[in-house]
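Thread title: Can someone regenerate the structure for this chain?

I was given the following input by a collaborator and told the matching structure tokens would be attached. They weren't. Posting the sequence so someone can regenerate them.
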Amino acid sequence: MSITRDGPLGRHRTIHGRVVEWLGRRIVSGELASGARLPNEAELAAQLNVSRGGVREAVKALAAKGLVEARPRLGTRVLPREQWNLMDREVIDWHGQIADRGFLGDLLELRLMVEPGAAQFAAERATAEQLAELEAAYAGMASNAPRLPEAEDVFVSADLRFHLILLRASGNQLIEQLGRLLETSLYHGLEASSHAPGGVAATLPLHHAVLSAVRGRRPTAAFRAMKRLIDTTTEAVGQMVVE
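Best answer:
Regenerated them for you:
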């Protein structure tokens, strides 16, 4: 399917993903609140300049994520947040795109529960190859930190690699899977923390402390260093929200 003329979605080779994102972001942002009814298929198709089939498929995709419910003759309504699949990669990404601070806070709490333990396991189980990858990721952060904000994309990508490698180095396949699942939200969270005043200056040495503890095979020190890192990140982000 293709768009034949300009509309709210712009010109794209395919429309399905764009319709899903257009609707999904409005639901996640609250513009389409819980209980709100979406315009009918024909109205949405006309509004977005797409086919009715494209709208129909997009609604099915959103229903699979728990965001909406479509009923014959009753239309499509937005479901309460507690029914959403918050672990869906696209739903996570939409939260990041709208800079949802509450969601970021929940992410930091989840990281606090998972990452210190992962760092502890990594200090016991990391392979030589994983240690080399962790060192390379930290080097990428350190070399680009002085070039912020211009080097933000490169810095955040290196930061993300550091955390994903650490989760993989835990040697626990479920923790590694969680890292892959949360990759998008981790990226948005790290991006937000890189904007926090003094955030990078405070957290970069703590990344090095985690690296040193894992490399030195000191599990307790790795646990404590990662906990300090996330606590410091939470404080920096909190200051940014207040300001």
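The first strand starts at residue 68 and ends at 71.
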